[in-house]
Amino acid sequence: MGGAVSAGEDNDELIDNLKEAQYIRTELVEQAFRAIDRADYYLEEFKDNAYKDLAWKHGNIHLSAPCIYSEVMEALDLQPGLSFLNLGSGTGYLSSMVGLILGPFGVNHGVELHSDVIEYAKQKLDFFIKTSDSFDKFEFCEPSFVTGNCLEISPDCTQYDRVYCGAGVQKEHEDYMKNLLKVGGILVMPLEEKLTKITRTGPSAWETKKILAVSFAPLIQPNHADSGKSRLVHLPPVAVRSLQDLARIAIRGTIKKIIHQETMSKNGNGLKNPPRFKRRRVRRRRMETIVFLDKEVFASRISNPSDDNNNCEDIEDERREEEETKPSELKPDPPVNFLREK
User: Fold this and answer.
1) The three-state (H, E, C) secondary structure of 328-339, written as one string
2) Which residue among 6, 64, 144, 230 is the active-site one?
3) How confident is the model at residue 275 (pLDDT cuts 50, 70, 90)?
4) pTM for this entry
5) What does the DSSP assignment read for 53-111?
6) Fewer CB atoms inside 10 A, N or C side of the chain?
7) Beta strands 205-213 and 194-202, pairing class
């Protein structure tokens, strides 16, 4: 799947192309896509293809095309504080973008069948937290991943506000997926070759909308041949935050506000050096007078005694203005991550 938009030279250009093609339509989704570089989730030898609108698969590692992820993010209608379940969480790329929107009081869980992919996702998450400036610019809801088949989730698990399934869902599993939703929740999944958005409007009422045609590998059916019984997947419990966590969130928020205020006051309400309006000067030119007498022409120049003084004054004014503008034309200092320093 993919190929709906042109490839970009970097992550920002890819996002620009997705916006132009109307795959990204809201500011929250755009900010999340720009904050996480898609190439960081590729293996080093495949990063040349990171900014193409194409899916990528290597062994068990898989990333959907950017146009698919952007449609999914828009359809989920994410808001801070919601709970999110990612079925087939893979590299954690989508879960991390969702976490930037959910904020510190959201819930962000993922279920992945392959244990090696879980380890890969944890490495990428750790790299993002330790190295990315975006981690300091957002209040992040860190995803938690568990290993198992998403068709074997324990029936006593909590329900979620938002659910996404990254594999093709067979018709017989549609009701199973719907039951993972709270009332008012949104489920996005590939169903019968269509990316489908299902909204739970009541205990037994649903609204269904087909978004676009897609082609996904089908969900892998549980295999009970070894043990003869199902191995239930237990999702992480939704726990009340500790006092330490709440204090950390409050301290981070306070530091961010202080840094923002310092930056605003330093830059003059966030504006860069305002353009200087030059005083418009009228130069006095020497006036020539032409006199016609019969067949002869006489040209005379009428000079003003103040012309020479005016020219000197103009030159002096220009020199003074150049000196005044020099400091503002100096290169700005490189950006500093104040939050990490503090």
Assistant:
1) HHCCCCCCCCHH
2) 64
3) very low
4) 0.75
5) SB-EEETTEEE--HHHHHHHHHHHT--TT-EEEEET-TTSHHHHHHHHHH-TTSEEEEE
6) C
7) antiparallel
| Residue pLDDT, tens place only, 165-182 | 999 999 999 999 999 999
Return d(Cα 278, Cα 322) in angstroms, integer.
11
Summarised one tens digit per residue, pLDDT across range 179-213 is: 999 999 999 999 999 999 999 999 999 999 999 99
**Taking the chain, what is the end-to-end CA distance rounded to the nearest angstrom?**
44
Long-range Cβ contacts of 37-41 (<8 Å, 24+ apart): 37/11, 38/11, 38/14, 38/63, 38/66, 38/93, 39/11, 40/124, 40/127, 40/128, 41/91, 41/92, 41/93, 41/124
Amino acid, single-letter form, for residue 237? P
Active site residue 64: yes
